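re: ur question from yesterday

yeah so i grabbed the chain u mentioned. its 111 aa long if i counted rite. heres the sequnce exactly as i have it in my notes:
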Amino acid sequence: MTGLVDAVWMPQANHGVRQVPAGRWFDVVEVPGPASARVLGRLGWRSGPVVEMQQRGVVRWFVVPGAAGGWPPPAGWCASPTGGGPPVRWVVPPCGRCLTDADALARARRG
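ran it thru and got these structure tokens back, copy pasting raw so excuse formatting
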């Protein structure tokens, strides 16, 4: 698990926000909005940062690249955590860990 201070892709003080591609430092797993609250509740403190794509009604978790390969639906893969423009908000802001353990996320999705 990468620590927050080691995550070169995270916004740094006085440098603002920048868009970076998924696949190098992280992959993104997308969960439909209605299911995401249940998944987040099951993950609890084990969740890393989570963003909500408000116009699409989906929530995205950041995981180690390739960690969730081969998962069955409803998880989806995204090209970027910002998706090119729709309103985005932090559901769980970066604080202490920057990636969610993919195995824990898979267990939380299954219930």
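noticed a couple things. The mean pLDDT is 75. also The longest helix spans residues 33-43.
anyway ttyl
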